[in-house]
């Protein structure tokens, strides 16, 4: 209600994948997310849900935050999420700052790999909820070019190239 009273109509909330499907593939726990959705609806807020933080079963080495070994696992999760909350979540942000190694499983940031993940996520979400918006991950503003980071402008340019310059 405080958010609404401040004049905002949108709220961004992180739905950690591991918090919902952490026990095992297909074993969902909606006990944390259902009340968030209900509260937002009660006060009339639109939600942007950020999805990241893979479960241990989905990524070898289990970094704090990184892409799953099998991108289809994320797509399957997003299908379940978008089906459950169809029409109730207005937008999904897929991952966070993939131009930083700490957000990309400790690996050198890879815009081509992120584009593959984003395209699969987009297809899964839109198939389950055609009216939902799918948003690319926010990039960290940096000029660093190293194994730990890629400049946000260059990373975005390389995403565009990886998409075929027309997506």
Verbal overview:
The chain is α/β, with parallel strands linked by helices and 167 residues long. 38% of the residues lie in helices and 13% in strands. It is built from six helices and four strands. It has helices spanning 2-5, 17-21, 33-43, 71-84, 111-128, 152-162; strands at 10-16, 46-52, 91-94, 133-136. The chain has a four-stranded parallel beta sheet. Helix 4 packs parallel to helix 5 (111-128) and helix 5 packs across helix 6. The protein is globular, with a radius of gyration of 16 Å. It starts with a helix and ends in a 5-residue tail after the last helix. The mean pLDDT is 95.
Element layout with pairings:
Blueprint: H1 2-5, E1 10-16, H2 17-21, H3 33-43, E2 46-52, H4 71-84, E3 91-94, H5 111-128, E4 133-136, H6 152-162
Parallel strand pairs: 1-2, 2-3, 3-4
Helix pairs in contact: 4-5, 5-6
Oligomer: single chain
Give the integer mean of the pLDDT values: 95
User: How many DSSP E strands?
Assistant: 4
Instruction: Give the percentage of residues in beta strands.
Output: 5-15%
Biggest β-sheet: strands ordered side by side in the sheet: 1-2-3-4
Uncertain residue segments: none
Rg is: 16 Å
Order of helices and strands: HEHHEHEHEH
